[in-house]
Amino acid sequence: MTEYYFHAEKMSVGYQMRPLIEKIEIGLQKGEILTLIGPNGAGKTTVLKSIAGQIGLLGGTVYLDGRSIGGMSGSELSRKMAVLLTEKLRTELMSCEEVVSTGRYPYTGHFGLLSAGDRAAVREAMELVHVTDIADRDFQRISDGQRQRVMLARAICQEPEIIVLDEPTSYLDVRHKLEFLSVLQKLRREKRLTVVMSLHELELAAKVSDKILCVNGRYAGKFGKPEEIFRPGAIGELFGISTGSYDEESGGMELAAPEGQAEVFVIAGGGTGRTVYRSLQRQGIPFAAGILFRNDLDYPVAKALSARCIAAESFEPVPEALLLEAREQINACQKVICCRETFGTYETANAELLAYAERSGKFKRGGIRSCQK
Q1: How far apart are CA 223 and CA 235, in angstroms?
Q2: Which of 287, 269, 262 is nearest to 277 (CA)?
Q3: Pairing, β 6-15 against β 59-64
Q4: For labelling alongside 207, which of 35, 126, 194, 336 has CA 20 to 30 A away?
Q5: What is the pLDDT of residues 119-144, one digit of tens each?
């Protein structure tokens, strides 16, 4: 227990004495980021509220720095933990700066008067998340994304040791998602801030997290490092994906492949084929792809969207049997699309396939190379 800064031991959570998730085991070192992932309604928010003390535990104990959170006073816990959940904060006629300033209340005493040091902490937090330009604006009259960043500044100026966040990037655009998570990483490195949060963006969870907890059902699922969690097939199983696919290695999510036998053969590689594959998918045209090495940028998309993906082992010569299989597939297709102008030293097999397609009349140089019929 004491080897972890944050530790949940056999934690059971739920409502009205009815367990939702039982026997949750989590262990984090100081300065680590834990992300909860799982389907909507799986219990992620309930776990976070229970950790934050907003919902009483139905079993087990949550320890912070070796002490049970349940044994801490409200003021003591507020100095150690900041919480940013999805509930709307009631802020009538408050400016953004005034909202951020409420994060200093654990330090201001009964009268809530801000010292010069408190005001400096507020300014620093607002600068960190780039909301100083809206400091004087009415909190209720800004966008959801701006509101989320203001609330993060409020949590930061509380100067906690651990921060609990529920879907903190939900209302942010791409730029501010990246800035938001970069701020968390900066605080993790410079102040050893421990972060426990939930995210819907799996690709971001895999990049920012030190640990991942899978949440779905009565018992919490796997807990470990991202590379231990994002194994082939794991996300499909966790979310019950039956239409389309998610590739754990690339973080790519694709819609369902067109049904039927391949009508088009696509020669690509080096990332040149992905837009063509997706265009064919949008048109509902089944296609075959090859020959691709398994470490090629095109491979995950081709594997997900093609009726047949002919793939060779990386860094190995292409076997004659695969070349023969690709020729047979070209024979069965109506035409060939080539996304390459030239081929590299180790791509002689695809150069041969293109020449074969020209001889068979299914590809013409200078003709249509797009995916349009």
Answers
A1: 13
A2: 287
A3: antiparallel
A4: 126
A5: 999 999 999 888 999 999 999 899 88
